Amino acid sequence: MLKIILTGAGGPGGPAIIKSLRIAPEKLFIIGLDNNPNSIAPAFVDKFYQSPMGDSPLYFNKLLSIAKKEKAKVILPLNTQELLNLASHVDDFEKIGVKISISPLESLEIANNKYNLIKVCEKLGIPYPMAILVENFSEFQKAVLKMGYPQKPVCIKPPVSNGQRGFRIIDNSKDELNLFLNQKPTQVIISLEQMSKMLEKANPFPKLMVMEYLPGEEYTVDILAKEGEPLVIIPRLREEIKMGVSFRATTVKEEKIIQYSALIVKELKLHGIVGLQFKKDENGVYKILESNPRLQGTNVISVASGVNLPYLAIKMLLGEKFTMPKIKWGVKMIRYWDEIFYDKRGHTFTL
Questions:
Q1: Which of 164, 218, 270, 286 is deepest in the core (most CB within 10 A)?
Q2: 227 falls within a domain
Q3: Whole-number Å distance between alpha carbons of 267 and 229
């Protein structure tokens, strides 16, 4: 059997990606990696390994050792944290016959940085949100006012992050008591006073982007690209998001998003499975939010829409021919919680 390594397999999107690989036309042996020894991954994969964190200096040698031992042929990364590390060692994996679904290092250094990505979109004529990079508390205060606060909400996020880590919407117009009583504590809304209290004593001050708030619909795009040439582009509307993960989504044929995505893929010479995110501004204009230059967990909706991107990526990486399936637009996905159990010997089971 063809052996595949899926990193970050215990993350929220891991089970859905594994499910996609299980329904591929050929049987695959799936080796899952995760830094958490008690992750859900062992219940879904054929073999599980605990690995160091993706940005650890120990990560490369551990992954290379597993790939050699298992005679794996393809690595599908699911974790943003490991991408630069993996891209730096593509040649080492090639020498042992392993292909990685990953873009070149110089492409990732732009795609992984939200501010750098905005600069590329400015050059390409792709709409982008106004953003100011700040490196101290004084710059932060000035940037918030320049973005229209308090008349308008303002966003703040680090240039390099994922899964809503470090993302907040500064908005003093919200009723804090209502948020406290009626909203679960996963809201990204924060007052300027709270944000300022957090940042004014920060040492060192974290590099942050103060950005235009985009109130409209949010879209994520799943893309399969071959050395800068987009093979398929599938946008999806994110209708409900919890903790940065889509819980309701629908595939939509938005031509503008497809056009913008193709331009970015070509300019950055992206390769393998990559993701982009767009959001509408108050005038309904699609603006770039960020890039996820890796396999995304909610990619499974593209699989349900007829295009098994993880499997097609494997075929492409191995140089095998395949026919691109027709996309079924308008497919809706709804996610729900499920459980995995461990017995006292460490074996997983479900009810």
A1: 270
A2: yes
A3: 10
Please tell me what DSSP assigns to residue 214. Answer: -
Are residues 299 and 309 in contact, defined by beta-carbon separation less than 8 angstroms?
A: yes
Q: Is the pLDDT of residue 186 over 80?
A: no
Which amino acid does the sequence have at 138?
A: S
Q: Is 75 helix (H, G, I), strand (E, B) or coil?
A: strand
Q: How many Å apart are CA 36 and CA 50, to the nearest integer? A: 6
Burial (CB count within 10 angstroms: exposed 0-12, middle 13-18, buried 19+), residue 50: middle
CATH of the domain at 57: 3.40.50.20
> For residue 96, is pLDDT > 70?
yes
User: Is 40:14 a contact under the CB 8 Å cutoff?
Assistant: yes
312 and 255 in one domain?
yes
Domain carrying residue 38? 2-101
Predicted structure pTM score: 0.92
Q: 93 pLDDT exceeds 90?
A: yes
Mark which of 156, 186, 212 sits at the end of a domain.
212
Query: CA–CA separation, 89 vs 93, rounded Å?
Result: 7
For tokens 């490369």, name the residue.
60
C-alpha distance from residue 197 to each of 132, 193, 336 (Å): 20, 6, 36
Tell me whether residue 351 is in a domain.
Answer: no
Domain count, the chain: 3
Rg (CA), the chain: 21
Is the alpha carbon torsion for 155, 160, 162, 166 positive or negative? negative
Report whether 73 contacts 101 (CB < 8 A): no
Q: What is the DSSP letter of 175?
A: -
Q: Which residue has the tokens 């393998």?
A: 272
How far from each other are the two terminal CA atoms of the chain, in whole angstroms? 29
State mean pLDDT over 189-200: 89
- Residues in CB range of 288: below 8 A, 6 or more apart: 117, 118, 121, 126, 127, 128, 129, 260, 264, 276, 277, 278
Under 8 Å between Cβ of 54 and 7: yes
Q: Give the integer Cα–Cα distance in Å for 147 and 169.
A: 12
Q: Are 27 and 65 members of one domain?
A: yes
